[in-house]
Amino acid sequence: MSSQPATPSRRLTAPDITARKGLDPIVSLTSYHAHTAALADPHCDFLLVGDSLGMVMHGYETTVPVPLELMIMHGRAVVRGAKRALVVVDMPFGSYEESPSVAFRNAARVLKETDCGAVKLEGGRHMAETIRYLVDRGIPVMAHIGLTPQSINTLGGFKVQGRSDAQFAALEADARAVSDAGAFAVVLEAIPAELAGTITAAIPIPTIGIGASAACDGQILVMEDMLGLSPRVPKFVKKFGEIGNLISSAIEEYATEVKSRSFPAEAHTYARQLPPKK
Ligand code: KIV
């Protein structure tokens, strides 16, 4: 078992991710900009331009208001920044639920305008027909089940899913349905470890966990959450850095130096160019 991709010199594709089922864990993060994409690229198999960018970067309370144009703009930036990782772009709320053909039109726009390699959409059995329609027409789809943030208004909050017997069975059926429909991988968000293990064993495509335990075939986190930049994070997030504190103290020091006129120092200024001596 190797942790290196088979062909590191080319960009990974959706089939490459599917082929990792049962091998070493798939590593992924969200990314919304070119420079964080470039930093994550050597370490991640895929980068997700998640619609969480609406909350993380644009100050929305939920992902519901995020427009397609915003996803396309951030998707382009991430594709420019990452050279090796597959880039997956989220389809935002309202851009795919109406019908398979509406989903195709919008997903095709995402692929053509960002040059990403796949899209992600939320939903299980009720989205299976749409997933099949997109895949049959050349659009790789990552599914997302469990806690699906775009359904926050029907779920009633960001709550763990799949705890009751009925929900456990329903989510297992959702996972089978999206896999049968041709999804190349499925995100499992905020579900019990036992359910994640059951689903991972039951389907032939990789499961990507976020709050779904190490039983999954891979993991994803929102980059700003694991870096310590987000003011509030869910229980399932481990902070691998405290970048927020670093930023605050750097800005405080900058403000102090500006006020005391110790910045800019001579090293940060330009000298006049004198005419050559005659
Ligand atoms: O939008 C997002 O960031 C996501 C991940 C949490 C999987 O969908």
CATH architecture: Alpha-Beta Barrel
| Share in helix | 25-40%
Termini Cα gap: 72 Å
Number of continuous helical runs: 11
Extract low-pLDDT stretches.
1-7
Whole-angstrom Rg: 22 Å
Q: Mind telling me the CATH superfamily name?
A: Phosphoenolpyruvate-binding domains
Largest sheet: 8 strands, parallel, barrel
Strand content: 5-15%
Hetero groups: 3-methyl-2-oxobutanoic acid
Number of strands: 8
Strand order in the sheet with the most strands: 1-2-3-4-5-6-7-8
Mean pLDDT: 96
Attribute tags:
single chain, 278 residues, alpha/beta, TIM Barrel, 14% strand, disordered N terminus, binds 3-methyl-2-oxobutanoic acid
Explain how this protein is built.
This protein has 278 residues and is α/β, with parallel strands linked by helices. It has one domain (14-242): TIM Barrel (Alpha-Beta Barrel), CATH 3.20.20.60. 38% of the residues lie in helices and 14% in strands. It contains 11 helices and 8 strands. Helix 2 (34-40) packs across helix 4 (68-81). It starts with 13 loop residues before the first helix and ends in a 19-residue tail after the last helix. It binds 3-methyl-2-oxobutanoic acid (KIV).
Q: Brief description of this entry?
A:
This protein has 278 residues and is of the alpha/beta class.
